[in-house]
Amino acid sequence: MKELFQLLAKYNTQTNAEMMGILEKLTPEQVTKDVGSFYGSILGLLNHILVTDAAWLKRFCNQFPELAQINAKLPEFTMKGWKDIIWPSLAAVKPIRIAVDQVLEQACNLLTERQYASVLEYKGWDGKDMKKSVWLVLAHLFNHQTHNRGQIAVLLDQMGVENDYSGILNKF
């Protein structure tokens, strides 16, 4: 199981870098324009992905002492709502995205096979105590990223911007 999540973490890092390279060619207006998606804009989607990635990683770091060394690399932020724009530009998002992707790769490398099969105990967004298998939470995290990058791809398609950055078979 560990090998699968290590691969997904590498894929995630590469795909995010490719996507950011495409997005950097857009104007700030194209990135921030509210296009009617759930998170409003491409920037809104980028913020949403980043906030949730960091939040999940903090939960892992809080439970597993082996991950304490990487917790300090995660961004600190305060949210009032799900649609908050924490990082107000692509230039602000990029270094945080790179750092969080590195932490995710490190976490997948540091967790043991046994830990992948263990249970993550955490507080849900609503404050309720939750318990889920570590492997299931990681599968959710990677699926969530893919889902939201897909939304960004659709928005780029609608702008006529070439954006074939998601194929895992082309990367390995």
The helix/strand class is mainly alpha
- Tell me the name of the CATH class: Mainly Alpha
Could you say what the CATH topology is called?
A: Four Helix Bundle (Hemerythrin (Met), subunit A)
| Outline | globular
The number of helical segments is 7
Describe this structure in words.
The protein is mostly helical. It has one domain (2-159): dinb family like domain (Four Helix Bundle (Hemerythrin (Met), subunit A), Up-down Bundle), CATH 1.20.120.450. The protein is built from seven helices and two strands; from the N terminus they run ααααααββα. The chain has a two-stranded antiparallel sheet with strand order 1-2. A hairpin with a 5-residue loop joins strand 1 and strand 2 (129-133). Helix 1 (2-23) packs antiparallel against helix 5 and helix 3 packs parallel to helix 5. The model has no long low-confidence stretch (mean pLDDT 96).
Provide a brief overview of the structure.
With 172 residues, the protein is mainly α.
